[in-house]
Amino acid sequence: MTSVLEEAMARRATAGLALYAPGSLEAAAHSRVRRARTMRGLGIAGVAAAVVVAGAWGAVALDGHRGAVAPAVTSPTPSPSASSGADATPGVLTAEDLTGAGGTVPDADSLPAYLCTSTLPRSCEELFVPARGLFSMAPGSTRVEVSALESSAEVTWELTYTGDEPARVATGWILPVARATDDYVGPADTLEGLSIQLPQDLRDVGAGTTVASSTVVSLGSAPSFAVGTAVIVDLLVPVAFADPDATRELWILVDGGNHPVTASDGDAAAGTVTADELRTEAFTRHREDYDLGTHAQTALDCRLDASLNPRTSTSVEDVSAPACDAVVLTTEAPLIAVTEMRFDVDDVAHTLTVRWTAQNVSGQRLNLDTGAAAVALETEYESTEPGASEFLGAGRAGTLLAQTLWETETTRHGLLRRATSVETLEPWQLFAGTGTFDVREVPDFAAALATVQVRVAGADDFAGDRELILEASWNN
Amino acid sequence: MSSWGAALDAVLHQRGGALFAYAFVLTGDPHAAEDLVQEALVRVFRKGRAPQSVDAAHAYVKRAIQTSFIDTHRRAQARPRPDDRTAERVAPDPTDAADLHAALMEAVLSLPPRERTCLVMRYFDGLSAVAIAEQLGIAAGSVRRYLHDGIATLQRTHGDFGLDPSDASEGGGESHVIVSTKGGRR
Predict the structure, then answer these.
(1) Mind listing the pLDDT tens digit for each residue in B47-60?
(2) Fewer CB atoms near the end CB (10 Å): N or C, chain B?
(3) Domain ranges of chain A
(4) Which residues of A fall within a CB distance of 8 Å from B141?
């Protein structure tokens, strides 16, 4: 009798078909796709801009306070607009501005917000305020460390204010809302259970101000996530009212985006993951896996003759770029993420130096061959058919250059090197590398797809007939 | 017109109704279904190369509907909403097939997104747990758990409906072979 469910779904589909008006989707779909393609183009162009702004980002130091709700730290290098608007002037964005333009129905420019009483316990109501685009979380900086002993989690996050005019924000009281990817946490519940009161001595933050902090949150007796859980972190940002006598508080919910991180073990040494363990749930990645998203960790599973592997054989060249099976190791959360990539051009020496930093975001120890890590540039990765690259350059200095690394619809080239240095990377540990290209071979480097490749050591790392290379893209 | 634009028009012209109906089965709401199809189209067509055939585009968009539905629901859960999983039992009149089907679909709509998606892929697409796992990129054991839990929740919260959790996790057919531009199997 299970077929009753089949019948019910078939009937529902028939009803859906009757509701469909041919031609009703085309205009909106064209518009949304065109906008997405435009935004994507801007994202790629942003690589070049990173050369300029990387210094400012690098100046932001994470404040790693443990054991207490830590005061936030603002960027030591505020932008000119920040200093010019530091006083409470009419040009300051306050809660009155946002609530006045808000409503109970969301739209494209709105974010969910909570208007609460300032007396305890809080009572909050949800509304939507025109704040989209005012705040931006840095997903690469988010981390969650669970302490089962203390029934708590230390959540580290980074937020940048990107509005045009200064905003009055209680930066010291920004609250993370952490939840398992398939779980539900009500921000209003978080606020109504909050026992602190917002301070009165608030300051205004200017465009480009970055706040980075760690906050310890209680997980209670029935934790909604544990070590190994894929967790999404959003932030509740308190925007102050200009009226010092206001009896309300406004908290804006800034979406952390679809970038889960794996909760690591804050109590004990984590286990070390090997290539063999990572392969257990791998499945084939296809070149046209358009919807993999930011949850996935992709890799290259290389099977080769050990005598042709430069890592284990001295009878071959120092580098090799075999075509390997493209795989997806997990779709829950990535294992590594590129946190920074800088492109420096030397017009005299005709070099393009790519400096990258990546992070172990797996929540576990990873045995990575950081000495053999490489950066790959694919110059025409979307328009070149698999296997049709005119050149494929594999350099000793940890570089790989091609129009596309795809050899077939399901295989990609990976770099193997004689140079090797296997390190055990702790959860959240950073690792870095540099690759130097001939800029004349890649003049339009800003439009290239840049990917870091790093080999995972196997349980028996003396064997050279199979290698697993993790991939993490910077701009895709 | 751009190549992606022509491909998008072609798939909507020939398969728009089927894609909308599929999204409607998942969401139960015509506006949400329309949004879901559009989100899926964005995922498929936002990159430079568009799928070259209507069959391929249909397959990609359908898969993107499934994954978008799960992702979108995740984001929506950032906002408070009632949890229907402890709702009182509905007691449909088993002699009235239309009532039974409507009650059953309302019950399905109360399930979390992963369970709901797996049930639709199992009972509407007729796929096995292994095939569903392959398409969603998750472990077959996880799919069996979602199917089992989904059916168990339907029975617990909305009535028996004559459903069988073991059939849910063990039945179904093989994965559809999706046509791709270079003949790769998905």
Answers:
(1) 656 777 888 889 88
(2) N
(3) 62-265, 272-473
(4) none
Which among A20, A38, A406 is the top mutation candidate for probing chain B, defined by the most B β-carbons within 10 Å of its own β-carbon? A20
pLDDT tens profile B106-118: 889 888 888 899 9
More confident residue, A269 or A125: A125
Look at residues A122, A159, A168 and name the one whose alpha carbon lies nearest to residue A141: A159
Report the C-alpha gap between A315 and A15 in whole angstroms: 67
CA A202 to chain centre: 30
Tell me the mean pLDDT in the region A91-111.
Answer: 84
Helix (H, G, I), strand (E, B) or coil at A430: strand
| Residue A319 bridge partners (DSSP) | A417
Q: Hey, are the CB atoms on B139 and A281 less than 8 Å from each other?
A: yes
Is any Cβ of chain B less than 8 angstroms from the Cβ of A410?
yes
| CATH 1.10.10.10, chain B: domain bounds | 94-175
Q: What pLDDT does residue B90 have? A: 43
Give ranges for CATH 1.10.1740 in chain B.
1-76
Taking the CA of residue A448 and the nearest CA in chain B, the distance in Å comes to 13
Residue A93's beta-bridge partner residues? A167
Please classify residue A349 by burial: count the beta carbons closer than 10 Å to its beta carbon, then call 0-12 exposed, 13-18 middle and 19+ buried. exposed
Alpha-carbon torsion angle A38, A44, A50, A51, nearest 10 = -120
Pairing, β A248-254 against β A230-239: antiparallel
CA–CA separation, A238 and A174 (whole Å):
6
Pick the CATH number of B94-175 from 1.10.10.10, 1.10.20.10, 3.30.70.2190, 3.40.800.10: 1.10.10.10
Cross-chain residue pair A2–B37, CB shorter than 8 Å:
no
CA nearest neighbour of A370 among A459, A432, A460, A320: A432
Residue A20 burial (C-beta neighbours within 10 Å; 0-12, 13-18, 19+)? buried
Fold of domain B1-76 = Rna Polymerase Sigma Factor; Chain: A (1.10.1740)
Exposed/middle/buried for residue A303 (C-beta within 10 Å: 0-12, 13-18, 19+): exposed
Residue identified by tokens 């020496």 is A349
